[in-house]
Amino acid sequence: MNILMVNVPFSGHVNPTLILAQKLVESGHRVSYILTNRWKDRIEEAGATFIPYRNAADYEIVFKNGKPRNFLHALKAWKYVYNTILEVGDKYDLLIYEFFSFTAFSAAQKRNLKTVRLFSTFAVSRENIGSILVSKNKEINLLKNQFLLKAVTGLICGKIPLVTSNILTEITDVTPDLNLVFTIKEFQEDSPSFSDKFHFVGPLIGKRSNGLVIPFQEMEKSIIYVSLGTLQNQNIGFYKNCMEAFGEKSGVSVIMSVGTNTDIAKLGTIPANFYVYPFVPQLEVLKHSALFITHGGMNSVNEGLFYGNALMVIPLDLDQFAVADRVAKMGLGVMLEMDKVTPELLRTQADRIWANAEITENVSIMRELLQFSDGANKAVDLIEQECKLT
């Protein structure tokens, strides 16, 4: 069958869906994926056909300190999603869209397409949208004002015929028959409140490599992995705190991914037990590490727990706070505030995690649950069963 996928150009929203695209192709389906030119190679590597945004293939979001420089420009992706589906949708049997690409649903209705919605983070409802929207981004916080929310909806969505009155209720109230959430029900705090239209399939873990060879064989047995993700990772002060906390610490090696835009020279003298790179093959690192210091993106937390890492979560924006809170409540690690991080705090919290038998046991249980979930294959099965794509 012919399947059309669509997304907004944010790594956290796209990466797990590429694994699904690959699995669908391997199952014999013809898959096309609408996105920007930056994702063309990755989409084609997954075996799908790349379709650029209509009249905006070169559309990119310019970031500063991990946040869009122009908030309204960033949200133009919603129009591009809608317009491109209208242009090409007649050729397909099914539309699969990530929840943040919510204008896809209205476009699918115009083209009489069946729809499947994906959640790269927690499933979202009216009850939990407030916690998902926790942010230090002033523009995001403005959306909590109903008058401004209506204005932004009109400005961005224009003549797109939304099902509801604004961009938030399009996410919380418009529910396709099949919704796939990339975590397990045990990790979604309020999972019983969601209808049987929601399936918590678990994380989609795939192979990713950048060709970097990391000398694990020369490292100490206890490896700490430090990464703040792909957007808000230019934090020299934080990285220096990590080096002061764990530099030359007996029995510990630290792998630190600082992002391609961070000048490693500004870190100063790097301790002998530190291995600092702009970017690392994260899954390979997590297979060897025991503690993951992370910003708390859902994909990173899923991957860390999948490979049995305890977590030290330092959330920076949006759903990361909700993810970090869940990690702490489930005893899978600890949650810290970035503006309170010191070398002493990092060191004492790492020692606390390693000495806590309950955290070790909880992480072990979660690892088994996540590995047993078989998210990608389960997602394909549900799509084929619910949408009769056999």
Give the proportion of residues in helices: 25-40%
> What would CATH call the class of the largest domain?
Alpha Beta
Distance separating the two termini: 8 Å
Secondary structure: number of strands: 15
CATH fold-level assignment of the largest domain? Rossmann fold
Low-confidence stretches: none
CATH architecture of the largest domain: 3-Layer(aba) Sandwich
Major sheet: 7 strands, parallel
Structural features:
single chain, 390 residues, alpha/beta, Rossmann fold, 2 domains, seven-stranded parallel β-sheet, six-stranded parallel β-sheet, 16 helices, 15 strands, 39% helix
Describe this structure in words.
- The protein has two domains: 2-120 and 127-172, Rossmann fold; 216-372, Glycogen Phosphorylase B (Rossmann fold).
- It is 39% helix and 16% strand.
- The protein has 16 helices and 15 strands.
- It has a seven-stranded parallel beta sheet, with helices on both faces. A six-stranded parallel beta sheet has the order 12-11-10-13-14-15, sandwiched between helices.
- Helix 1 (11-26) crosses helix 16 (375-387), helix 4 (77-88) packs parallel to helix 5 and helix 10 (236-246) packs across helix 14 (343-355).
